[in-house]
Amino acid sequence: MLLRLTSSDMLNTSLVDVITGKTMYTIVTSIVDIQDTPESLPGAASPFGIISPSLVLTDRLETTSVHLPSSRPSSPSTRVSPTPEKLQLNDAPPTLSSIQVRKTEIQASDSGTLLADIRWNGRRPDIMLMNQHVGPLTALFDITTVQLLPNTLAIPSRFDTEFVWNATAHSLTLIDLDSDQTKGTFHQNVFRVSSSSNSAAGKFIHTRIPGVGHNYIEFESHPLVEDVEIIVSFFMMEILRRGRFALTPYMFERPKLWQIIEAKDLIMRRLSSRRNTV
Predict the structure, then answer these.
(1) Which residues pair with 132 in a beta bridge?
(2) Are 164 and 154 spatial neighbours (Cβ–Cβ below 8 Å)?
(3) Which regions are flagged for Low complexity bias (predicted)?
(4) Of 53, 157, 184, 222, which residue has the fewest beta carbons closer than 10 angstroms?
(5) Tell me: the pLDDT tens digits for 22-72?
(6) Is 194 inside a domain boundary?
(7) Average of per-residue pLDDT values in the chain
């Protein structure tokens, strides 16, 4: 399946099937008035509760340590089981008065059925998929074993331990370790060239410039999971990828400003790299 994002803001967009031209999913993120939602208060048992005490999406992944201690040599095949302490913030959680609460809803465009509901307490997600309350981000992936590779963040999926999310500074893919095949890719800032309008196959030309080109999610459906879970996982991994590699963090608002900041950061990184090579 190849889906094109109609907006540069991945949490406020529609996903269009490239083959049929049909809008498959509608994604909307909005601010929640917590004074009008009693279930959002701390300690509430609602499956849509906003407090997620485990993994937190931050602008830098240092709060979610997946690095080996400096005293131990890293190895491409090294696997570690992160402790709960490493997956939590060191400081106290923010109070409700100091955070912005939002909700992200993903609906099937044809029927209007709610497929996913994500409540954000600041940058802490609480995830609902179909009729299942997944909970915090740690529950969306298999974090019991984390694979450490050079310049790579690799996290197994929860629906198939052989399917691993593979993030680098320049890419985000879903890999099947059994077949060593790519089962999913997040194409960003690209132009697609295809010889046939009836085929998802085509060549992607990367512009490397934020806001120039289009964004696509390409993946194969898995028999053990709904497509919407793969889509949500793509978005969560993209936010984590940006934190892990010190890229411009995702912004909930003003996507145009986000693109300008990202372009500026990209230029500064390239200039810094050139200075270091001179």
Answers:
(1) 129
(2) yes
(3) 69-84
(4) 53
(5) 999 999 999 998 765 545 434 333 333 333 333 444 433 333 333 322 333
(6) yes
(7) 77
Range of the domain at 51: 2-66+90-135+180-277
Q: What is the pLDDT of residues 142-159, one digit of tens each?
A: 988 766 677 999 999 999
Domain total of the chain = 1
Q: Please give the pLDDT value at position 41.
A: 39
Q: In whole angstroms, give the CA distance from residue 192 to residue 214.
A: 8
Examine residue 84 and state whether it is found in any structural domain, yes or no: no
Per residue, the 3-state secondary structure of the chain, as one string, reads CEEEECCCCCCCEEEEECCCCCEEEEEEEEECCHHHCHHHCCCCCCCCCCCCCCCCCCCCHHHCCCCCCCCCCCCCCCEECCCHHHHCCCCCCCCHHHCCEEEEEEEECCCCCEEEEEEEECCEEEEEECCEEEECHHHCECCCCEEEECCEEEEEECCCCCEEEEECCCCEEEEECCCCEEEEEEEEEEEEECCCCCCCCCEEEECCCCCCCEEEEEECCCCCCCHHHHHHHHHHHHHHHHHHCCCCCCCCCCHHHHHHHHHHHHHHHHHHHHHHHC
pLDDT digits (tens, 9 = 90+) for 78-101: 444 443 333 333 334 455 556 789
At residue 186, the pLDDT reads 98
In a domain, 210, yes or no: yes
